[in-house]
Amino acid sequence: MLEDALRRGGIPYVIVGSVRFYERKEIKDALAYLRLVVNPADDVAFRRAIQAPGRGVGRASLTRLEELAAREGRSLLALAAAPPADVTGKPRRALEEFVALISRLVAERGEGAAARLHRPGPRRERVS
Question: What is the per-residue DSSP string for 37-51?
Answer without folding.
Answer: HH-TT-HHHHHHHTT
